[in-house]
Amino acid sequence: MSTITNYDYLLRNYYSSNRLARKSYNRVNMKSSELASADSAAIKKVAKTLKDMEYNSDNGVSIYNNVKAFVDTYNNLSENADKDPTMSKYWKRLKKVIKDNSSDLEDIGISIKSSGKLEVDKTKLVSCSPAKVGKVLSGDNTITKSVMDYAARIQRSAKALVNSKNTSMEKNSSASSIQNNTQAFTSLLADPEIVSPTSINIRA
Fold first, then answer.
1. Where do the H-state alpha helices sit in 79-141?
2. Which part of the chain is the Flagellar hook-associated protein 2 C-terminal domain (predicted)?
């Protein structure tokens, strides 16, 4: 199994559905539904990687980077997953998974801050054996499997919201275009210099 040492490259892959969302300076100009869709897709991928990863000493850098990616994508998702009732329902369940397993997570250096966001204690994490980290995050562990499940549900809800807004915008744009064309035609008919009996040439 190859080790990915470049964290930005790793995050770029996890945000393949919308790479702009991985950068804070891009996020300020994006809609909450777009961000929720990108963040939920990303954390779902991270959770799968952690579930399937080989936890050994040769994979130390990759283990650390992926744990950090898990924390970062979780924190990003926390900013927008409660903006819609359906997403909020699944987000609350995802948060409960983290809370219910907070003791195990703290043992490997992942803690819940007062804000509800996660934080990595690098010193504590790297001092753990790979096997200990794997025991919490790998295989059929409840944490990663549940995160994947709820992240997928949030993603579906967010995508539906994005599509709904896009459809609404298209309808509004079409209605506006028709209205503008109607107004332009009305103005044309109302101008005697443009439309007059002498300006219309109809041949039999």
1. 85-100, 102-107, 122-127, 130-137
2. 84-184
Residues 6-54: tens digit of each pLDDT: 899 999 999 999 999 999 999 999 999 999 999 999 999 999 999 999 9
Residue for token pair 């994979």: 59
CB atoms near residue 173 (< 10 Å) = 10
Q: Is 190 exposed, middle or buried (0-12, 13-18, 19+ CB in 10 A)?
A: exposed
